[in-house]
Amino acid sequence: MDTVIIGLPQSGKTTLFNALTLGKSDASGASGSATEMHMGVVKVPDPRLDKLADIFHPRKKVNAEIRYIDLPGPESMAKSQGISGKYRNILQSATAFLLVVRAFTNDAVPHPTGEVNPGQDLETMLNELTFADLEMLERASARLADQVNKTKPAERPAVVRHKEAVEKARLGLEQGVPARLQSFTDSERAMLANYQLLTDKQIIAVFNTDEGAEDICMDRLGLGEDVLRGVGEVCISARIEAELGMMDEEEAAEFRADLELGDAATDQVINASYDTLGLVSFLTVGDDEVRAWSVPGGMPAVDAAGVIHTDFTRGFIRAEVIAYEDFSACGSIAQGRKEGLLRSEGKTYPVRDGDIINFLVNT
Ligand SMILES: Nc1nc2c(ncn2[C@@H]2O[C@H](COP(=O)(O)OP(=O)(O)O)[C@@H](O)[C@H]2O)c(=O)[nH]1
Ligand SMILES: [Mg+2]
């Protein structure tokens, strides 16, 4: 799952990236250069996985992972610069955005508009996403209008329907409703999926505050309720968190207690990501590996199987499922089977958090 860090210049994106990934990731290219894209993988902590590893003694324990991407300099969107083509693909392929909003005071770091104003910056960034989508949909609409006249009559209705879906999304955006909050039919969704609209991504606002500052309450920033619906919220000091990220765990924990800081940035951001995206983790066990997989809650078992291997979707027979709690209580899969706690589920079974699943597949 890719999460791209976006925000105005100097809002603390790279600092946040470091806080999230330093010492905890295979951060590649995180050299601090302003011209490089940084990528880092963060393991999602999961005590259940640790317990399962103690029981199964697998060769490998694999946590669910979130990949964070930090784009260089102004490319990560700056007011009036728009979203540059080069990085658009990366933004489009993201599952979610961490939208960093400057709330810290620091005279040495000039603010692009001259004034620290979290509400305004958040609105600017959300508008940038809307503008980018509008531009894309306007071009698509014009292209489709042209295509309607050129296609054979038999194929025309499909093009017309496609154009109508594009127009519907465009009108919604013009009325200020991001794509993720608009209601579309399944077929409209399928047609719009091609455009990978940026306002269709999940968003977590990360307010980068001064150390010890009061939490910013996003809904008190004076922005429209509609605009903020479904937007996750985290308040941290990226700089302090980045510094703590460089210490060893014990030392960091001491400082954290002294400074009366809350959970580590990584944990807060991961939790907010799971909440905002409605993610759950299911688990697979075996001698070779125990592993956690993060998927949207309620994902049909057949699709969850496809997350493990695309061939599993086609070859899906059934899923043997036991809830982690049930497994813990009865001690083994075999015992769970005896007690009827291990269930056999079909393709449409909605996957729940903590399900230990064995997929039976034809390959
Ligand atoms: N005081 C303070 N300064 C910060 C904080 N976060 C970032 N900065 C500083 O702001 C500047 C820009 O940060 P950077 O992460 O490079 O921003 P980016 O352009 O969004 O990637 C750097 O000089 C940081 O040290 C913070 O929480 N508090
Ligand atoms: Mg940066």
Summarize the structure.
With 363 residues, this protein is of the alpha/beta class.
Strand elements, count: 12
Run of helices and strands:
EHEHEEHEHHHEHEHHHEEHHEHHEE
Bound ligand species: guanosine-5'-diphosphate, magnesium ion
Distance between the termini: 26 Å
What's the level 1 CATH class of the largest domain?
Alpha Beta
**How much β-strand is present in the residues?**
15-25%
Q: How would you classify the helix and strand content by structural class?
A: alpha/beta
The fourth-level CATH homologous superfamily of the largest domain is P-loop containing nucleotide triphosphate hydrolases
Question: What are the low-pLDDT stretches, counting only 5+ consecutive residues below 50?
Answer: 25-32
Q: What's the structural domain tally?
A: 3
Q: Assembly state here?
A: single chain
Give me the side-by-side strand order of the main sheet: 2-4-1-5-6-7
The biggest beta sheet reads: 6 strands, mixed
Radius of gyration: 23 Å
Task: Determine the fraction of residues in helical runs and give it as a percent range.
Answer: 40-55%
User: What would you say the CATH architecture of the largest domain is?
Assistant: 3-Layer(aba) Sandwich
The name of the CATH topology of the largest domain is: Rossmann fold
Name the average pLDDT.
Answer: 90
Q: How would the global form be characterised? A: flat
Q: How many helices in DSSP terms? A: 14
